[in-house]
Amino acid sequence: NIVFRKDYTAPDHQIESIDLSFDLIPTCTEVTSKIIAVPQEDRKSDDLILDGDDLTLVSIKIAGEDSFPGQYDMRPGKLIIHNIKERTEIEIVTRINPRNNLELSGLYMSKNNYITQCESEGFRRITYFPDRPDILAKYRVVIRAPKDYKDLLSNGNLVEQGELLDGRNYAIWEDPFPKPSYLFALVAGNFVAQEQKVTLSDGREALLQIWTEPANKGKTEFAMQSLVKAIKWDEERFGLDLDLDRFMIVATDDFNFGAMENKGLNIFNSKYVLADENVATDQDFANIEAVIGHEYFHNWTGDRVTCRDWFQLSLKEGLTVFREQEFSADMLGDESSRAVKRIDDVRVLRNSQFPEDAGPMAHPIRPESYRSINNFYTTTVYEKGAEVVRMYQTLFGKDGFRRGLLEYINRYDGTAATCDDFLNAMAESNYEDLSQFELWYSQAGTPRISVETKWDEIAKTFTLTLRQNNRTFPGKPAPKPLMIPVKIGILDDAGNDIPLQLEGEDSPDGTSRLLILDEAVQSWTFRNVSTKPLLSIGRGFSAPVIFNTEYTREQLAFLARHDSDLFNRADAFEKLTLQMVDQFITDLSRRGAQNAMPSESYLFAFEDILNDDSLSPAYRAKVLEMPSENYIAENRVLIEPALIREACDLIKRRIGQRLRGSFEDKIKNNQTPGLYRPDAADAGRRALKLLSLSYLAYAQDAKAMQQVRNLYKNANNLTDRLGAVNIAVQASLPIGEELLSKADVEWKSEPLLNNKWLALSTQLRTQRGKRPTVDLIRALTQHPKYQDHNPNSIYALLGTFFRTGGPEFHRPDGMGYQLWVDSVLFVDKFNPQVAARLARALENWRRYEPTLSNLMYKALKYVSEEKNLSPNVREIIEHALTEP
Ligand code: ARG
Ligand code: ZN
Prior knowledge:
Helices cover 40% and strands 20% of the residues. The model has no long low-confidence stretch (mean pLDDT 97). Zinc ion (ZN) binds at residues 294, 298, 317, 320.
């Protein structure tokens, strides 16, 4: 059952309105849906096709009359009502079982609260309906629930609430904006709400509410502030106002994803709402601001203008991630913090999207086909999608981008649009031909660009030649050259940017220039380059590509020191580190070179950045953090997890030993006394302090060990406390297990902390002669902190272990993969979406050393032979096994 983008056809019937009423009972909720179906002029058929999944049909009335056999047909997943030739009212009663809904798609229960999740295809698990995003209807919702259910919420405006004759409660909601079914939401339970009023730019007042379980009262202040900031930011940056009188957020512990932008009633995974200094880290605070922003920004880019079909998912997600990134950056303000944000975003892309683009699940940001759309909520659609949107801004500037975005919204407000629509709005409002740019939507793979430079000392010219190389896919047409914005600068031998004057120009124009690479090979020549030049390329990460540069170590160290572009400075240092890691791996594999040393020039560059007080602590911490083992793996031809670990540990140990004084100094000078504040400045200090402590811990420095212990004990915030445990387990300090068991006892009865503790446990290093970590992880699936059916638990323990477990997961005895098999099969029985995410951990099996890759292949094969696999997991496994 594969769906293809090319097969899209417009619906034969629209739904003008839907009246829904719910009688909430955990195992037997009755849903009555009254829809007005409107046949379209140019329809191909009079059949009205409704989707349905896991529903018990009770009755159907057509135009007020009980239906009779022959008026409709049931097909797998469909209810087809014949002969709808005119505007017709259809009333359908169904029963559903929210208590048994462990897929967490449709209407389900989280403890005793009712929650919905409808994107992408959850609404069909509530009632029969044409569950596709190009059907926009007006919703009216009646909720009836037992009297101990106090809070009954849905989209839009509350028009009435009260008590029924039988003592139950009811509420009636009306959403003034037509919407697709995936944006429907219902929440029922007992909550507390933090409320705040905001005055919008047109003087209207809106009520903001954040609903949580009573136990979480007091943890929503930061989320509320973030929401207010997001509202103001969208007003200022894009002139987009909140269009509702009431905007609600609900937090739940049981949720498959991060959060959901249901119109006026966003539903969030509680980890992206709840925060205080004891349950959230600096990173969590930053994530909350970002995700609150993200879902709020969807109100325009997603809700007011939605997607025609699910192939267009990046239309709303790529765009909204971009808006979220810009929001977070604007909240930081200064250049160096903004650079940290950019480095972070690019790391996510390189760590997880690049491997996806190079592996068997590669797909363009607008996929061509899918078996389960849920498998395409990927870093490609989201993060690469955001980079593609960013390129419009790079090409047209902030003003041009704003013009294009507003044009897009004006054209398509209240409708379902496509990626082409967006591109055309951008192109036309900036008078630019973007037909070639369109290839970013249809070609998968990360472009590789080889870079050649030539300096003619006599003629004083500098020539840059770029050659793009795009991934070919068997059975697909050869890739065409993309349109790639390449921002460059040229440093002179003192490290200053030189003014750039292209051949044919009368005078230089700026020191950073945007070149447009839109052919397979292209050259640019710059004049008046009189000292030995050094190229800085892809400044600010101007396009989601890989530049194959051939810098020497000295050149990289020079760029890391002098590039005026803070992103590229960090990038040069990272390349330098990666080169060194490669060297260590080679040495270690050849002759077990336990006494290998980072070069003096590397240590010098490292220390220079560490001690450079003109750079913010956050920036220094970001640059000097060792690349993750996954990222190192991604940059190698053959992946050998044990060697990567050994090399990283050794390098960190050496750096810790050699730069002890500087690290101690950083620890001393980056304390954050007084009340905990999650702002960027304090967070940056904590990051630099923890980074320094970590290097010293790897060096098994006795004083540092004591500091780790004290930090855990005395910290007034979770960032430090968790940081301490993390350092202890990752650096295999003798106190690692002790701190972990302390935290087990002390971090009690708080789901957020339980999950953090589970994730930390996966980082325990297996020591010779000791119990393997994989055994511990298996045992932890029985631990009271682990909730079998809860996605956050599963992601925290199994997801983290499979993703970052290194040699503890990739074991030559296959025990790691056995746990993977068991987990995927177990979870797939009740939650295929979550299982499919776990399943992805082995898809790049071909790149591993032969022992591991054979075992991974066997594990994949074993899962594929399971008869009752969900389509979700089957799609992942089949791709992994078949595509080269
Ligand atoms: N639209 C949500 C967001 O990114 C995510 C929904 C995920 N849904 C899914 N079926 N994977 O804000
Ligand atoms: Zn989104």
